[in-house]
Amino acid sequence: MRIKTVSVEYQRKLNLGDYNSATLGITLWADLDSTDDPAASVNTLQETAREHVKAECYRLKGRPAPVAAATPAFPNGD
After folding, report:
1. What is the DSSP letter of 76?
2. The dihedral formed by the CA atoms of 74, 55, 52 and 46, expressed in degrees to the nearest 10
3. What does the alpha-carbon distance between residue 28 and residue 52 come to, in Å, rounded to a whole number?
4. What DSSP character marks residue 4?
5. According to the model, what pLDDT value does residue 68 have?
6. 49: Cβ–Cβ under 8 A, 6 or more apart, which residues?
7. How far is the C-alpha of 20 from the C-alpha of 6, rounded, in Å?
8. Tell me, what DSSP letter sits at residue 28?
9. What CA–CA distance (Å, rounded) separates 19 from 70?
10. Looking at residue 40, what DSSP letter applies?
């Protein structure tokens, strides 16, 4: 069996304080060639999705996003 498409969904709930929260999420898809490794593609999509949601968390919190190599976690400490 040949896998032609992979998808990843990443979602995170962010506490904004004062009993407010935001749910941030993204879904990414990739069409695979016959030479692509599906597991590696999923890992790449997961990392990309997490970084996009993390950047949006920082934007909503009004903080600059840290440099990718030194990124701790999310702005609320997770």
Report:
1. T
2. -20
3. 11
4. -
5. 60
6. 8, 9, 10, 26, 27, 28
7. 34
8. E
9. 30
10. H
The Cα 75–Cα 78 span in angstroms is 7
**Number of neighbours of residue 8 by Cβ within 10 angstroms:** 19
pLDDT for res 69: 47
Helices (H), 1-78: 38-61
Mean pLDDT, 10 residues at a time, over the chain (78 residues)?
94 90 94 94 95 90 68 54
C-alpha separations of 16 from 7, 32, 55 in Å: 29, 38, 15
Rounded Cα gap, residues 17 and 78, in angstroms? 15
Q: Is 57 exposed, middle or buried (0-12, 13-18, 19+ CB in 10 A)?
A: buried
Amino acid 2 reads R
